[in-house]
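Title: Prediction job returns without error message
Component: structure pipeline
Severity: low
Priority: P3
Assignee: unassigned

Description:
Job completed but the reporter wants confirmation the result is attached to the right record. Sequence as submitted:
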Amino acid sequence: MSKTHLRAIEKADPTNIKKHQEDLMCKMLAYVQNHSPYYARLFKKHRIDIKKIKKLEDLKHIPVTTKEDLQAYNKDFFCVPTENIIDYVTTSGTLGEPVTFILTENDLQRLAYNEYLSFLCTGGTSADIYQLMTTIDRRFMAGLAYFLGARKLQAGIIRVGNGIPELQWDSIKRVKPTNIIVVPSFILKIIDYAKKYQIDYKSTHIKKAICIGEPLRKADFSLNLLGQKITEAWPIKLFSTYASTEMATAFTECHQGRGGHQQPELIITEFLDNNNRAVLPEELGELTITTLGVEGMPLLRFKTGDMCHHHTEKCLCGRNTMRLGPIAGRKKQMIKFKGTTLYPPAFYDILNNLENIDNYVVEVFTNSIGTDELIVYIDTKKAEKQFEKNIKDIFRAKLRVTPDIIFRNEREIKIMQDADNGRKPRYFIDRRNATQKKTDFEI
């Protein structure tokens, strides 16, 4: 995208971007004080005078909001009466009980605007056709956001949903989409299907994949093993995105592929350490967000649980907006294993790139002396000692750790992944709070 296509706020001097955010922040603080039972109570309890919070730096005087707060006081965060609620969504519940979020008509328009900006960031135009390979039902916000954003862009969209490679390829051949919106590991599955049924997938109209839910890049922005494997098999342009239900805002890469761009009129970001102090850009911090322009359920200083770096230097695309680096992992999923600190995506990066692995689950539990132990359950047709040794050697070489490897069949792995009846398959199972170790899965 050329500089002439950038919005004024994206090209603005960082000082002016900050001033614009502060103006919106003051309006939002007044709104939640008048409409949010939870924040009105919080301000009163901590004797917070919102009129004194004028700079972004002043937000530190407001206590953070956690996932546990949302779970314990869910409806106290609602800011509108029932008759003003248009749509209900829920979080995926990856780290606890799902939380209900509400959207008003204005919130739906904001959601559309957010994804419209994301499509523009990837170079999207009204001439594009997007094939949606994620669900739009099951109270899932992302699918709805993509649909609304494509409408605002006046582009075409094919609502295929997740899975079903046969239907995906039928839609690709019939409609000829230019972009797919997809969980990146599913791209490998539709490539395998195409090869099996001799579909000339490299000759389609598809030029880009907007990817959701899984990391594609390393901290230095180079493609990780999953990203490399996809582009080696199918030379399309991959765009990483990061978003969540709580923020109702996406961070999307431009063509430079150097991090997800912040939409400053929609969200304020902080990066905090364990003591809720701001970290330096070169340090890993927990992404903490304050939503702007949300009417139904705005959030102040919400700690997302996601650990990442952030980048403030000007992007080569011409934008001056902050960029979000690849998510290193969830704070609560951090593993201390034999002196090494790890996050689950490091395991996924290896497992997604190994031949003969059809599916997997990573499990962590606490042993009898109180330290973390790791098991990787693998579905493979090559369940033999030498293959197990090869896998361990790769983990040892790349991560300096050697997890236990247990082979399971396809059905057993699927049961493990779907045990909590969530929207997404579980690739990571944390049993550190369980009363006992569970190495054998009950079928």
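Comment from assignee: result matches the submitted record. The longest strand covers residues 237-244.
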